[in-house]
């Protein structure tokens, strides 16, 4: 991996295959292909790059044309990366039931995200993408039917597997199905070049579409005509949409699936957590689900067998899902006890005095020039609301967010900014602030010359109406109807004191 790359797209693929040392049986080798090593942390990076480059080669995607696709998240994140690197605008449609982290990631990468109602399921977000593509002339990826999706795995994933297992037998390859691209692309290569390898596909036990044998109703272009009658909501996001994708059906029709294993959602959650805590491998719920299937295979496999399991993505995509529902933000009782076991540097303890200084050290004198600046700033009739802040202080950001929410105009004096660094000018003004207020903390807010205090003092004043009165008295126009608890603007990491 120690090489130079022309762009981020050249880093897609070549993900590691790692042996499990604690979770598998002693007499069977359970291996996992860790797809989170792709640049955007999922196997769908392969799909995204392949479908865009295929469309470019075939002349179906014009320079600067908008790309659109329906996605549960990982494909959209991969497409956002590819489109950003290649200069295509991207619009994705996603059902509201998928994790909010995925939406934010796609937007962070520059995509526009259109959310569809949960009750319309995957078929709804697909229909919305098609509707938008037709209306606006956008390029529709169609990942569930696009052969370039499967080709990505035939060209990259499967050869990587064969190379890794050169000289030894790969007895089982285990995967879930989402778009169908992975199982279509890998299975046809393994069946041709490693025929002894059994192809095992997993699906949710409460939503067994493949296992039912009931065919999927389709339109002429291969898209689903309606949801599969046996689809039920399940825990494994990215697995098993509410229909059998055409690419998945192609694998079934080819007779390449040797076994289908139903997976319990609670077992998927358990093994996702176990992978993290016992093997140090961080995956989402779908990774735990696929491992559940692989361990079932391993339990009945002959001693010495090699079982390879696909781990599709990373756990960070699941922070708002049941996978993390028992993971707290605050310290639990055991962590509090650890903190309390020593006397200092904990909540509820007085901070120790600075080393080498007296606790009752007198405040330093403020230079007259700084005092004059403070007096001028706090009485500026053109800017009645004045914020003394630091550029990268999150409590200052909280105040700024509150001002923005209520459309309150203000003057910000950022004491650590480049403009205030010469001769420690910002530090001198801080001395003047301390002399005026008796406080060393930042931010400090004034309205019409009156000192309000810091962030929480300002928020208290918004709640009790005193800040509103000061704004009115100083003829400051603001949005009185924008109601919100001011304390919601504080940093989310803040400990509840």
Describe the structure.
The chain is α/β, with parallel strands linked by helices. It has three domains: 8-38 and 147-210 and 238-317, Rossmann fold (3-Layer(aba) Sandwich); 44-140, Rossmann fold, CATH 3.40.50; 368-489, Glutaredoxin (3-Layer(aba) Sandwich), CATH 3.40.30. It is built from 16 helices and 14 strands. Helix 2 runs parallel beside helix 3 (100-108), helix 5 (147-164) crosses helix 6 and helix 12 (368-378) crosses helix 14. The longest helix has 18 residues, at 147-164.
Q: Short description, anyone?
A:
The chain has 497 residues and is an alpha/beta fold. It has 16 helices and 14 strands.
Defining traits:
38% helix, Rossmann fold, alpha/beta, 497 residues, six-stranded mixed beta sheet, Glutaredoxin
> Termini separation (Å)?
46 Å
What is the total domain count?
3
Briefly note the structural class of the backbone.
Answer: alpha/beta
- In which range does the helix fraction lie? 25-40%
CATH fold node name of the largest domain:
Rossmann fold
Assign an overall shape. Answer: elongated
User: What is the overall number of helices?
Assistant: 16
Topology diagram in text:
Elements: E1 17-19, E2 29-34, H1 44-57, E3 67-70, H2 74-86, E4 90-95, H3 100-108, E5 112-116, H4 121-136, E6 139-140, H5 147-164, E7 172-176, H6 181-193, E8 198-204, H7 209-212, H8 246-254, E9 259-263, H9 265-279, H10 285-300, E10 306-311, H11 333-340, H12 368-378, E11 385-389, H13 394-405, E12 411-414, H14 425-437, E13 444-447, E14 450-453, H15 455-464, H16 466-473
Parallel strand pairs: 2-10, 3-4, 3-6, 4-5, 7-8, 7-10, 8-9, 11-12
Antiparallel strand pairs: 1-2, 11-13, 13-14
Helix pairs in contact: 1-2, 1-5, 2-3, 5-6, 6-8, 9-10, 12-14
């Amino acid at each position: 991996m120690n090489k130079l790359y022309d762009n981020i797209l050249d880093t897609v693929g070549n993900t590691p295959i790692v042996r499990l040392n604690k979770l598998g049986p002693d007499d069977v080798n359970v291996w996992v292909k860790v797809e989170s090593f792709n640049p955007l942390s999922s196997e769908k990076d392969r799909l995204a790059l392949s479908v865009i480059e295929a469309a470019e080669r075939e002349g179906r995607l014009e320079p600067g044309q908008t790309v659109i696709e329906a996605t549960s998240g990982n494909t959209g994140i991969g497409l956002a990366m590819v489109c950003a690197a290649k200069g295509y605008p991207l619009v994705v449609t996603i059902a509201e039931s998928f994790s909010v982290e995925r939406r934010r990631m796609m937007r962070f990468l520059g995509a526009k995200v259109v959310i569809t109602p949960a009750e319309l399921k995957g078929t709804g977000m697909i229909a919305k993408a098609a509707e938008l593509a037709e209306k606006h002339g956008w390029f529709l990826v169609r990942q569930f039917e696009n052969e370039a999706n499967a080709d990505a795995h035939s060209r990259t994933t499967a050869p990587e597997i064969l190379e890794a297992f050169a000289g030894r037998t790969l007895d089982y390859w285990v995967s879930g199905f989402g778009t169908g691209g992975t199982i279509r692309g890998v299975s046809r290569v393994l069946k041709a070049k490693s025929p002894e390898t059994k192809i095992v596909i997993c699906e949710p036990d409460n939503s067994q579409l493949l296992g039912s044998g009931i065919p999927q109703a389709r339109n002429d272009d291969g898209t689903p005509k309606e949801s599969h009658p046996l689809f039920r909501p399940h825990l494994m996001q990215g697995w098993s949409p509410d229909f059998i994708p055409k690419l998945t059906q192609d694998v079934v029709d080819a007779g390449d699936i040797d076994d289908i294993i139903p997976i319990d959602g609670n077992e998927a959650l358990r093994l996702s957590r176990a992978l993290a805590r016992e093997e140090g491998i961080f995956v989402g719920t779908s990774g735990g689900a696929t491992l559940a299937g692989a361990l079932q295979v391993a339990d009945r496999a002959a001693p010495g067998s090699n079982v390879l399991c696909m781990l599709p993505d990373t756990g960070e995509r699941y922070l708002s899902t049941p996978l993390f529902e028992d993971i707290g933000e605050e310290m639990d009782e055991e962590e509090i006890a650890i903190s309390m076991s020593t006397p200092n540097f904990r909540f509820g303890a007085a901070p120790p005095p600075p080393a080498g200084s007296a606790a009752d050290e007198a405040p330093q004198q403020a230079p007259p020039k700084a005092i004059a600046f403070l007096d001028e700033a706090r009485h500026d009739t053109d800017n009645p609301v004045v914020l003394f802040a630091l550029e990268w202080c999150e409590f200052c950001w909280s105040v700024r967010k509150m001002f923005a929410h209520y459309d309150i105009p203000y003057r910000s004096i950022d004491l650590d900014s480049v403009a205030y660094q010469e001769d420690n000018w910002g530090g001198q003004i801080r001395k003047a602030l301390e002399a005026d207020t008796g406080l060393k903390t930042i931010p400090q807010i004034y309205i019409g010359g009156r000192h309000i205090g810091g962030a929480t003092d300002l928020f208290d004043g918004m709640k009790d109406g005193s800040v509103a009165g000061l704004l009115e008295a100083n003829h400051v126009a603001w949005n009185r109807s924008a109601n919100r608890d001011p304390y919601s603007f504080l940093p989310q990491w803040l400990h509840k004191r």
